[in-house]
Structure formats: C-alpha cells, structure tokens
C-alpha cells in the first residue's frame, strides 16, 4: 500500500487529502467559520449550579456558557479519551475504592474558577460540554494530568507488544502524579521516541498551568491544534511515503513541529512550489468531482 498526504491551503480553507495507491481514501476541510473547539482548555468561572440536573454552567468566554456534569468533575476519566482510544479494561490504575460521589453543589459554587476542556462542541442553542479531566494528546501518548492512571489502547492487541510498551513506560519513570494513555500509534515505537514525547507533553502541561495561574477567567488557556498540526500529529506516520503542502508558512510550521515529535519524518515533508496547483497535479480535484457528494462533504476529524 502506497500512502500519501496532500494539503492545499488558501485564504478561505485548508484541505487535506489522504491517498492510498493514488486514490482518495480520506478528505478533510477546515474553514475559518468552522474552527474546531474540541480539546480547547479554558479557565472558566461557574455561572450557576443546578443540583437537580447534577450540572453547573460555566462561563468560558464563548457565546453560550458551557455545561459541566458532576460525572465530568468526579468521574473516573481513565475510560475516556477524546481520540477514541479508551484504555484497556483492567489497565494499571491507582486502585482507589469508589464510594458514593458527592453532589454538584458540594463540588462547585457560583463564582468558582475552574480549568475545563471542551469534549463536545456547542450545537444550536446548547453550549459546549466540558470536563475537568484534562487530556493533552500527543503522537503516541495522551497526558492526563489529574489522573495518575497508566493505560494502553485496546487496539494494541498483541500481548508481547503490550508487555514491551509497559516495560518502556516503567523505564521512563514518569511523574507519579500524572496519568498517561498509550495510543495505538505507539506500536513498535522506541524508548527514545517515548522519552521525546513525554518530555514535550509534560513541558506543554507546565506551560498550561503557568498560563492558567496568570490569566483571569473567562479565558482560553490552550488551543487544540488546527488541521495542519493535527495532520502532523495524528496522520503523518511511518507508513506515509510523503506529505506535500503548498503553503510556505505552514510547511515551516509543520517542519518545526516534526522536529520535536518525529524528526525522522521531516525528509518526507515537501513544499509544493509549482505553477500547477497541488490538487490538480496529483489528480485530486478530478477525483473529487467524479465522486460527487461523497468527497464534497468531507469527513469529521477522527474522534470529533
């Protein structure tokens, strides 16, 4: 299988086409009026607490207040992952017994400041669904700073591979107060790769904490990556032969990002600087036209 990724950037939209054996398999579009909010971290202020609903409404600076269920404040976050890679059943955890959870009014009061993350975007008149269980995804790991649980994706099925990854995680000597989930993409990854990424995620979390201490609510503390960097993080893997992008600025941005997370892939990153548009040269526009509504309605990002 020959896999390639092509990215077209214009003033009005960013388009990503994933090709396998020269045929489109996945297609994504991001426009200025539909920027992804999923994964954004905010410092918010509790606007109201509704014990009957078991929820609180939190002002995070958007048009509508977000809502925070009691289960998203006190629930066990080890089974939740924004990227759809829940930890395997029986994975390592802190083993604390579960008692009757407190009510929302015992946990939050009007005016309280809270650090929250969007797990479901606003729809119509409904505000965003929030959680206090922050998840910071990387290429191979997801950092969960408020849960000291260590888990592996269920999609890593080989017992030998699971044992190998567990040994690597143990050798990393990660901070005991932080939790991590190992993503499916970590299969076959070396100790050096895990070290590089865990340092990156821990530094990112420290920066988020420092910014949260400085800023007053409501305020955006950490913005999830745009389409370009999500492609670099989640889709530009070892099985991709090349990634071509026609924006000089985004090429440089992606190159800097890969220098930190996957330096060995930078040689496969190419800047398309030709007169013939990138989607025309690689027969992408014609495939979109021939396929009609299939590719004219791009897919949602995995896990969104």
Looking at this protein, list some descriptive labels.
single chain, 304 residues, alpha+beta, Nucleotidyltransferase, domain 5, OB fold (Dihydrolipoamide Acetyltransferase, E2P), globular
Structure in words:
This protein is of the alpha+beta class. The protein contains 9 helices and 15 strands. It has 2 domains: 3-35 and 226-296, Nucleotidyltransferase, domain 5, CATH 3.30.420; 41-222, OB fold (Dihydrolipoamide Acetyltransferase, E2P), CATH 2.40.50.140. The strands form 3 sheets. Strands 4, 5, 6, 7, 8 and 13 form a 6-stranded antiparallel β-sheet that branches. It has a 5-stranded mixed β-sheet with strand order 3-2-1-14-15, with helices on both faces. The protein has a 4-stranded mixed β-sheet with strand order 9-10-12-11, covered by helices on one side. Helix 5 runs parallel beside helix 6 (248-261). The model is unreliable at 75-86 and 88-97 (pLDDT under 50).
Briefly, what is this?
This protein is of the alpha+beta class. Helices cover 28% and strands 26% of the residues. The protein is built from nine helices and 15 strands.
The string of secondary-structure elements, in order, is EEEEEEHHEEEEEHEHEHEHEHHH
Largest sheet: 6 strands, antiparallel
Radius of gyration: 21 Å
CATH class of the largest domain reads Mainly Beta
């Amino acid at each position: 299988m020959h896999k390639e990724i092509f990215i077209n950037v214009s003033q009005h939209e960013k388009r990503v086409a994933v090709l396998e054996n020269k045929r489109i398999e996945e297609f994504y579009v991001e426009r200025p009026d539909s920027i992804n909010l999923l994964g954004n971290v905010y410092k918010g202020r509790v606007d109201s607490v509704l014990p009957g609903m078991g929820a609180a409404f939190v002002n995070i600076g958007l048009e509508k207040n977000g809502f925070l269920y009691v289960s998203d404040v006190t629930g066990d976050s080890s089974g939740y992952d924004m990227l759809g890679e829940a930890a395997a059943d029986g994975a390592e955890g802190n083993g604390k017994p579960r008692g009757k959870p407190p009510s929302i009014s015992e946990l939050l009061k009007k005016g309280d400041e809270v650090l929250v993350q969007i797990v479901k975007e606003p729809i119509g008149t409904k505000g965003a669904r929030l959680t206090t269980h922050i998840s910071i995804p990387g290429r191979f790991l997801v950092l969960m700073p408020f849960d000291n649980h260590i888990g592996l994706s269920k999609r890593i099925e080989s017992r030998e591979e699971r044992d190998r990854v567990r040994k690597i995680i143990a050798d990393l000597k990660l901070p005991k107060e932080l939790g991590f989930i190992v993503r499916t993409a970590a299969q076959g990854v070396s100790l050096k790769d895990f070290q590089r990424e865990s340092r990156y995620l821990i530094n990112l979390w420290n920066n988020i904490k420092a910014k949260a201490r400085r800023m007053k609510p409501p305020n955006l503390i950490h913005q999830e990556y745009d389409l370009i960097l999500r492609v670099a993080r989640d889709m530009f893997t070892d099985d991709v032969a090349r990634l071509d992008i026609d924006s000089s600025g985004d090429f440089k941005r992606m190159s800097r990002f890969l220098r930190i997370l996957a330096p060995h892939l930078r040689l496969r990153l190419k800047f398309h600087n030709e007169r013939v548009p990138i989607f025309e040269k690689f027969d992408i526009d014609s495939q979109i036209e021939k396929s009609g509504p299939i590719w004219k309605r791009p897919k949602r990002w995995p896990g969104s």
